[in-house]
UniProtKB/TrEMBL annotation:
Keywords: Coiled coil. The keyword Lipid metabolism does not apply. This is PRELI domain containing protein 3B. Residues 1-171 form the PRELI/MSF1 domain. Residues 156-183 form a coiled coil. Pfam families: PRELI. InterPro entries: PRELI/MSF1_dom, Slowmo/Ups.
C-alpha cells in the first residue's frame, strides 16, 4: 500500500473554487476524463448537498494491452461528495471501479476556505493505492502513485482553466444582460 498526499492553495474564494470543481471535467488539461454522470443527488436536513457520480475515463491503454489483461479501454470510478456551505467545506471521495479486484485507488479531496484568508481556498488531497494478486505489487503501487503526483498538477491547471472560463462566461453574460437592459429601458431614463 502507498499513500500520497498534497496540499495546495488556490488564490480564489471557496465559492469560486467549488463552482469550478463541479465543472472540472472534461477539460483540455486532463483529456483522460471523458464524462461524469450523476447517479444520485440530495440535500440533507443540514443543508448539505450530497452527490454520487460515475466518472468515465480513458486511461490511454493500447487496445492490444487492454485485450491481453482483459479490460476495456474505457474505465470507471465512483465519486461521492458533500458540499457543506455552512462550514465552507467540499469533500470528494473517489474509488476506481475498473480493475478494483487487483488495483484499488482511494482518493480524497477536501476544499475548505483558507483559515487566514477568506479570498483563498485550501485543497488537501490524499490517495491510497493498493495492488494485490499481481507480481511486483510494490513497484506497480509506486508507478500509480507517481502518476497521481503528475496528474495533480494537471488537475490544478484544469481548475484554473475552469475558473477563467467561468469568469469569462460571467463577464459575457453581464455584457449581454446590459445590452438587453439598454434596449428595453427608454433612453430618457
Amino acid at each position: 500500500m502507498r499513500i500520497w498526499n498534497s496540499e495546495h492553495t488556490f488564490n480564489h474564494s471557496w465559492e469560486t473554487v467549488v463552482t469550478a470543481a463541479w465543472r472540472k471535467y472534461p477539460n483540455p488539461h486532463n483529456p483522460s476524463v471523458t464524462g461524469l454522470d450523476v447517479v444520485d443527488r440530495t440535500v440533507d436536513s443540514e443543508g448539505r448537498l450530497k452527490s454520487h457520480r460515475l466518472m468515465t475515463t480513458n486511461w490511454g491503454i493500447p487496445g492490444w494491452v487492454a485485450k491481453l489483461i482483459g479490460i476495456q479501454e474505457v474505465c470507471y470510478a465512483s465519486e461521492h461528495s458533500i458540499v457543506d456551505p455552512e462550514s465552507k467545506s467540499f469533500s470528494v471521495k473517489a474509488r476506481n471501479v475498473t480493475l478494483a479486484n487487483v488495483l484499488q485507488v482511494d482518493e480524497q479531496l477536501v476544499y475548505t476556505q483558507h483559515p487566514t484568508d477568506p479570498e483563498k481556498t485550501l485543497l488537501r488531497q490524499e490517495a491510497t493505492v493498493t495492488v494485490s494478486g499481481l507480481p511486483l505489487c510494490s513497484k506497480l503501487e509506486q508507478m500509480v502513485t507517481d502518476s497521481m503526483k503528475n496528474n495533480a498538477g494537471k488537475g490544478r491547471q484544469a481548475m484554473e482553466w475552469v475558473i477563467d472560463t467561468v469568469k469569462k462566461e460571467a463577464k459575457e453574460l453581464t455584457a449581454e444582460a446590459q445590452k438587453c437592459m439598454d434596449n428595453v429601458l427608454p433612453k430618457s431614463l
